[in-house]
Every structure is written in structure tokens, then in C-alpha cells.
Amino acid sequence: MSSAHHDRQYARTVRRALRTVPHYRERQSADGALPPLTRDEAEARRHLLMPLGAALLPRRDPGPRPAGEHIAELYEALCLAGRRPRRGAEVYETARSLRDPVRAYGVTWRVVLSPAAETDPYRDPLREHHPDHLDHLDHPDHPDHLDHLDHPDHPDRADRAVPSGRPALVIADVDATGPVPPAGTAPTVPRLSLAGSDGAHPSGALWHEPWLGHLGAVPPSCGELHLNPARVHARLLDGVTVLTLLRHRRPTLVHVRPEGAELFRPESCPRHGRPILRRERSSP
After folding, report:
1. Element counts in the chain: helices (H) and strands (E)
2. Model's pTM, two decimal places?
């Protein structure tokens, strides 16, 4: 994707936000601009970040983000990191809540609980699952790569602890201890956030902001934190790096300021010519 096309996508997203989203229309009217949006403000004004009319239609405002969107985003980040999972593989993502396994791109995507997860010993979310309310991933390039595994006798049920010799990846946050990888010898893919990064990014790491999702990765033999240009645009605003998520609609997120963004500046990768975020060097 060219830099000019990327900038046009950003401009279209901003125009759409001003035209259809109450929060941005209100800010533009009051301030004459769209100032940085913090996490606390986004949480407090979530209903105003929805496009006009979207929150009135339950089928268009499903509440929690569909699993399919999350997995598509994670898959793209893994490909950018040079860790594209092989067909038939299993990917285990550490998370704070359980999700039934999903099959997409020829891969089974599972969840293992992180140390920060809040658990209730008297409640079993797997037993409360209703197959009629599954999230679906409709990817145009992979129409046959999704089948949710909801049969109790299926060999890929989430409560089967160890894969039967299949290739596996475990995605874990770098600042968390994380559970023992289910496969024992499965390679771990580190996942970092801007606030938790010291600028020395491990090759093959994923970039993940808990409230924004998987936004990019560190390609092999590069060391730079690349954005996924199909999903995120970065720019300086009032001297601080802000991000615009190009595909988010509910909520729409323009000029968001993730934690730690004040330490990074958008640049172009000297090796690949792609958009990156580089940590600013502190003055001596």
C-alpha cells in the first residue's frame, strides 16, 4: 500500500467520522479540530462514538467485538511478524476471558487464561455457550476456512488441554508470566504495547493495545515497530502520536492516544519504506 493511498484512507475515515459520529461532530464544533482521544474519554463517551443510528439496531451493534474481527486482525499481525501459522496449526492466545475455539485460515484459534484473568470457580463459561449465537468470520479470500467447533465430541473442543502433535504457537504479553504453553514445546510469540516497550523490540513480536487490538508487528530481521497500514494510521497531533483505526465503525476511533504514545513518533522504515513507530531518544 502506497503512502498516498494510506493517507487517503485516513482522510476518508476522518470525513466519515465528522459526518456520522456524534462525538467528533461535537468536538469539531467546539474546538474546530479533533483533539487526541484518551482511553478514559473513549470509555465514558462510547455511546457517542457510535455512528448515528447504529446503537439503535442490535443486529448492527453487537456489543462485544465479534471474534471474527479480532482473529482477522491477529492473523494479519502474525503475517507481518513473519509468523504466519501453517495450515492445520493451533494458535493459543493468552487473554483475560475465555472464548470458544474458532477455525479460520485453516488454523484453530484458542484462548488460555492470563494471570490477570478474573475467574469464578462456580461459573464455567464453556458450559454456558449457546451455539446459536456464534460470531462468524466472513473473509473473502478464505470462504471455506471457518467452522466453529461447537460439538461436545469434536476433537478440537477448547477443554481438550493438549493438541495431538499439531504445530502450535502461543501468544503471550511480554510483561506477563503467562501460563505454561499447552503444547509444552510450542514457540511463544511475544506481544507488546507502547507503554510496556523500551524501544528494543524483539523480532517477530506483535504490537497490541488492550483497548485497540492488534495494530502491527516487528518483521523478522528488522527491529522496527511496523503499523498494519490496512488498519491503522499514525500521525503527530499537538506534538503527540495519535492513531486512527481505519476499519473500526462501532466504536469509531479517530486520533486516539494510547498509553505510552508520547514516547513514540511516526516515521518511515529505512529498510522497507513502510510506516513505523520509533521510540524517541531521551536527551542526555
Report:
1. 4, 12
2. 0.77
